[in-house]
Amino acid sequence: MSKKLFASLIAAAGAVALSTPAFAQSADWQRTVAKLVAAKQTYPRAAQMRGDEGTVKVKLTVGADGSVSNVELVAPSGSSVLDREALALPAKVGKFPAPAGGAASVVLPLTWKLM
Asked: 5-114 adopts what CATH topology?
């Protein structure tokens, strides 16, 4: 029996924290960042083989020029494989759109679930 694999980024407005003053612009920026990260999210083969599932929260800081200046694990998943993948995802995106008003940080919950 084969399992369908599901990797998703949950970017609910209440679940993602953003630190920029212009709310409307920052909310759009936040959604864009979440979509870019989600597009690069895959289920690591090692995690699949071990049956690892979980949700990771990463804090991503983007500079005024759109470059990633920091990625940190805010809440681990319980799987070192998934945690490492979450920390590597922003680098797979490359540059992000420049946040309005300078550098900004966003906390992204990333979920991996075997289906």
From this structure: TolA/TonB C-terminal domain (3.30.2420)
